[in-house]
Amino acid sequence: MPTTTAAREAAAAADSRAEAARIFRLDNEHLAFRYTATLSDRAGTEPFERLSDPDRLRLWLAVNGIDPGRRPTRPQLADAIALREAVYRLGVAVAHALPVAARDRALVNEAAAATGAVPELADDGIRWRLASLDTVAAALGVIARDAIALLGGERPGRIATCDGPDCAGLYLDASRGSTRRWCSMSTCGNRNKKSRMRARA
């Protein structure tokens, strides 16, 4: 039977996951692309910023297995958003065979150089132990390294942007014949399906 401390920690973790699921879209299979979804409705008239404060950044990092163990500062939040946007612009460039901006590539490479992140097996998958003094930079480095692996290692044409109205989220198309259209079937794909059903009614 779990100790009182362990039970409290498990309950706190469940609460954090529930709060994160309410605030963020967590359905993308790939960490770096899931991170770019912290700005929603990119193709719409009013994109929605979900990383509105340092506490939300820490929450997102924590539920994705890279908790820095402390509240990020405002400048670190600005760095985190700059990294997110660089990853997104690089992803769009790769998806549409456009030139890659050198400054975006440099920003991602610099973030990836942060040291001190070590992967560990945990009960629910992979967790990252952040041994660096700057644990926030180390956490962002994990995201940057995932972006590099996705954007630099996949065959051309596998990175795509979502066809969902207002979305334009990034995803990796692993479908046969590269026919996938949505960043997530459970959100954008489902919305499109319901929209088609309403149109036929």
What class, by secondary structure content?
Answer: mainly alpha
The order of strands across the largest sheet is 1-2
Multimerization status: single chain
Largest sheet: 2 strands, antiparallel
Q: How far is the N terminus from the C terminus?
A: 54 Å
What is the residue-averaged pLDDT? 88
Shape: globular
Radius of gyration: 18 Å
Listing every helix as H and every strand as E from the N terminus to the C terminus, the arrangement reads: HHEEHHHEEHEEH
Number of helices: 7
The amount of beta strand, in percent, is 5-15%
Describe the structure.
With 201 residues, the protein is mainly alpha-helical. It is 52% helix and 11% strand. The strands form 3 sheets. Strands 1-2 form a two-stranded antiparallel sheet. A two-stranded antiparallel ribbon has the order 3-4. Strands 5-6 form a two-stranded antiparallel sheet. Helix 5 packs across helix 6 (135-153). The radius of gyration is 18 Å and the shape is globular. The N and C termini lie far apart (54 Å).
How would you sum up this structure in a few lines?
This protein is mainly alpha-helical and 201 residues long. The chain contains seven helices and six strands; from the N terminus they run ααββαααββαββα.
